[in-house]
Amino acid sequence: MTIYLDVVMLENLCMNFIILFATGYIMKINMNKLRLLASSLLGSVYSVVSYLEILPLYSNFFMKILLSILMVYIAFNSHSLKKLCKQLVIFYLTSFVFGGCAFALLYFIRPKDILMKNGVYIGTYPIKIALLGGIVGFIIICIAFCIVKTKLKKKDMLYEITIKMEGKTLSLNAMLDTGNLLKEPITGMPVIVVEKDELYSIIPTNVLEHIEELLGGDNYSICDKVEEKEYLTKFRVIPFSSIGKQNGLMLGLKADEVVIEKEEFFIERDDVIIGIFPHKLGKSSNYAALIGMDLLERSKSNELVTNFKG
């Protein structure tokens, strides 16, 4: 079988370029096509030198690692060691996925005119398999990273909160919302937005069923029971803006205490308003409340209130 070195270089050039492009795409790097091409060319030259055994040193394990580092550095021009290490890890992961796709295609197609020497596959089909394997691998790894990233984000943003009010306690999951900057206008207390349906265990039904009237100031005619009248001093009206509602009003109640927990993270606060939201906060059932960043940082007295369990 006749081997053409230009074909070997082209095959490896294409595959290296796809792998480097996928690495940059996953890490959201502003890529320079010329740098990617130069790095890919370096890798393809290595494959030819390795195949021809011109320099035995090229088959050395440490030289291969050094080549990978050099390729990643040339492609992305990393300015810090930390970034370079991250890019190198994703580069290897992407290479393994692409290699697995290419091997799977080789297994199913079973080409006859194919030869492997010093880790380099050459023959009739490899360039087609390399390109097809690269495309399939690119799609697989992008989908996988999107799924993992989404799950990690959701997991990292979920906290368990416990609301204490008039001797009653409610525990539920809350999502950290960096856009939640709501504060009670008079006292400046931060607001936790909670779905109304979750609050029936700690707030009287008569109060929750007449939120609109209470916002209009009709407090005493609605809160006719002694238990309900105790909530009058806790009522707060919170102005807010959202999509489709620029000048909205939300009824809030001051909680006696709110506890926010996540793994070893633990915080207690007594300066929190519970904003009653009449609808579902989102499609997900993983959370029923929204908390802001300020609730995780400092209290009004500017004392750090973040502790750790134990």
List the helices and strands and how they pair.
Elements: H1 5-26, H2 33-52, H3 61-76, H4 81-109, E1 114-117, E2 120-123, H5 126-156, E3 158-165, E4 168-176, E5 191-195, H6 205-208, H7 211-215, H8 226-229, E6 235-242, E7 245-254, E8 257-262, E9 265-269, E10 273-277, E11 289-291, E12 306-308
Helix pairs in contact: 1-2, 1-4, 1-5, 2-3, 3-4, 4-5
Structural class: alpha+beta
- Give the tally of β-strands: 12
H/E series? HHHHEEHEEEHHHEEEEEEE
Shape label: elongated
Summarize model confidence as the mean pLDDT.
75
Low-confidence stretches: 298-310
Helix percentage range: 40-55%
Distance between the termini: 71 Å
Oligomerization category of the chains in this entry:
single chain
Cross-sheet strand order for the largest sheet: 6-7-10-5-11-4-3-8-9-12
Question: What kind of sheet is the major sheet?
Answer: 10 strands, mixed
Number of domains: 2
As a whole number of angstroms, the C-alpha radius of gyration is: 30 Å
Tell me the number of helical segments per DSSP (H or I, 4 or more residues long): 8
- The fraction of residues in strands falls at 15-25%
